Task: structure prediction
Amino acid sequence: MTRILVHVEGQTEETFVKEVIAPHLYSCGYHSVGARLLGNSRQRKSRGGIKSWEVVRREIDRHLSSDPGCIATTMVDYYALPNSWPGREDATNMLHELKGNHVAQQLSEDFSEHSPHSDRFEPFVLMHEFEALLFSDCARFASSIGHENKLASLQSIRNQFSTPEHINDSPMTAPSKRVLGIIPGYEKPLYGNIAAIDIGLDTIRQECSHFDSWLSRLEARLL
Result:
């Protein structure tokens, strides 16, 4: 199986997959790397609008049924994931290191109960959202989007947490909200991916172990 489809919840993640993750996976041996928005994600107007897990599960199952040579994975934000998704509510009071993996495990178990294609499903829940990855290198983040004067403010946030993935998830303190507080004109799909490209996948993986473990699992499927 050398094809992979990443089911994402927004245009920022869709572009990130195509421009940052895909080139790496191609170099590892994948022949096709695509991204697909979950449900009607393009029409969402506010946080929490992601489709129900039942709808998403059927969507992924249909794709795997129609393409026997493909692996499916997800890249969804823990921050915006509805409590109705398997494991999400349970994870609220868990240690940070357990949250994302717990939800992913619950998604995997639920999928295996409803689909014969569970061996080709590798769920991933991003901690806490895409912008957290950009704190892997605050200097490159600031310079790549033309806001070098905001480096100190960005670095101050980063210094408060042991890793970028620990930057917490509330309506006021989620990574994207922190960035908007420093850079009011921040445009997530455009600036976020410019910064991610400049920071580089290697640096992001070094700083974000949860994200790195997901890519490692995708790489291992080719062995």
